[in-house]
Amino acid sequence: MLPPPQPELSEPPAKKLKKNWTLEAVLGEDVTKPVPLIPVLTATVKDKRATSNLVKKLSNVLPLPNLQHLKRVNSSQHDGQTRILIILWELSQASLDIIKTMSPLSADDLSIPRTAPDCHSRLAALGPDIDLDTAVEDQLTVAHVAKFQPHSRAQYEILKTCAGYWPTNFHPEKYLESQLSGVGHDMWTDLARGRVEQYMELCQASGGGVVMDPNTGAVIAVGMGTAELTSHPLHHTAMVLVDLVARSQGGGAWDHTADTQGLSFTPSDSLPSHDPEQTLNSSSLPASLSCVPSSGPYLCTGYDVYLWREPCHMCSMALLHMRVRRVVYCMVTKDGALGSVDMLHTREGLNHRYEVYRVRRGEGGVDCDILMCS
Hints:
Elements: E1 15-16, E2 21-25, H1 29-32, E3 37-45, H2 51-61, E4 73-78, E5 81-90, H3 93-102, E6 111-113, H4 117-123, H5 132-135, E7 136-146, H6 153-161, H7 174-181, H8 190-206, E8 209-213, E9 218-223, H9 227-230, H10 237-248, E10 264-265, E11 304-309, H11 313-321, E12 326-331, E13 355-361
Parallel strand pairs: 11-12, 12-13
Antiparallel strand pairs: 1-2, 2-13, 3-5, 3-7, 4-5, 6-7, 8-9, 8-11, 9-10
Helix pairs in contact: 10-11
């Protein structure tokens, strides 16, 4: 059966701040879009008593390493009769195209004889222990199943409404659901919203950025891009902030960050001590989020970075290597890597991850910057 068109998921809600601004999480399409469906070949079980042996044998000789989130068997009722389908293997697009040319049924109900050469050779691996003639029907059918386990409840609910829904595992993630809804998430507490407004106003005034310690609310560094001043192509806002943080810890590589007007940093030995009353509730935060080491600051570990403009790939990777906790920006840019031309923070294989949030301005505010990251 061909997959029916799936409804679109609504975008994560934007929660209003005190000003005419809203805040929203920037999440990957694997979370914000419906779970894509992929084709598999299934057999209709003829003898219910053979189901258990079929599953065991198929798991050994025809495993489904990419579909571990699915139940191998789908039992449903049709006209008062129980129909049991079992997944044989995943279909490539080439195999699906061949089945379409051979299927005696409509385009919505694709099937192929069990005796077709490729099917026969694969099923032969089941060996003599399984009598296919009595165990399954002669025609094998195509079903469409979830490509991966749904991340959100909304994705799961959409899957369940699809015709021919195939049972899939789903374990709701409380933290992710709070990101999607804004309910119970620490970024939408009164304390956090006040900080967002405070630091984004600083960013707006300079067109630059701020680095802050979420444990205390202390500002670690304030700056803006200096490429026009220095004629250096690497001196974007995020890169300058990284150097300012290094200066706050006794380092720093660029001479001009020490005394350029508009750039500032707070030495680490001058930072306020930890105040539990000013700390955002971290008990429910995922372990993947970095936190400021108890031994003292190290790079940007555990810090939040506020930027007026969306950072480019260079800046986004610099923030990743500095191990920041969260990035919040307002203006999207032509080369923005955190939502515009890429979603770098959602890529697989990264050795560190940070969360990304975007501030949207209300009526009269232009959220799209025709400029590049700077």
